[in-house]
Amino acid sequence: MKKLKVAFVCVHNSCRSQMAEALGKLLASDVFESYSAGTELRPQINQDAVRIIKDLHGIDMNETQKSKLLNDIPEVDIVVTMGCNVNCPYLPCSHREDWGLDDPSGKSDDEFIKTAKIIEAKVIDLKNRILNGELV
């Protein structure tokens, strides 16, 4: 089975989409390639997100990821928007879904942990749906 390419997309590509990229690489790299991108760059990934993902999963996103624009990633099969509450960025794809996640930026560690755990469950669900032939 050809590995699908999945883009996790939000406006700033600094928090939720970065966590999704890291967790996709950790939990589903055998099924899909994970990318993240946005329509605006940030000088660095949200450091609270970096810390929480490192605490929960031992991944240092500062070492492996950076904020990217939509045209910085390859063509993808699946686009997952994080829940932009504005006009979500558009990328051509064969399947698109929105995870409707609130941005935890500026909130407590508990909110970041809650968001990371939701993303983790959704990444595993996405992997299983791909394996079951439900997508693309």
From TrEMBL:
<feature type="domain" description="Phosphotyrosine protein phosphatase I">
    <location>
        <begin position="4"/>
        <end position="129"/>
    </location>
</feature>
<dbReference type="GO" id="GO:0046685">
    <property type="term" value="P:response to arsenic-containing substance"/>
</dbReference>
<dbReference type="InterPro" id="IPR036196">
    <property type="entry name" value="Ptyr_pPase_sf"/>
</dbReference>
<dbReference type="Pfam" id="PF01451">
    <property type="entry name" value="LMWPc"/>
</dbReference>
<dbReference type="InterPro" id="IPR023485">
    <property type="entry name" value="Ptyr_pPase"/>
</dbReference>
<protein>
    <submittedName>
        <fullName>Protein tyrosine phosphatase</fullName>
    </submittedName>
</protein>
<keyword id="KW-0059">Arsenical resistance</keyword>
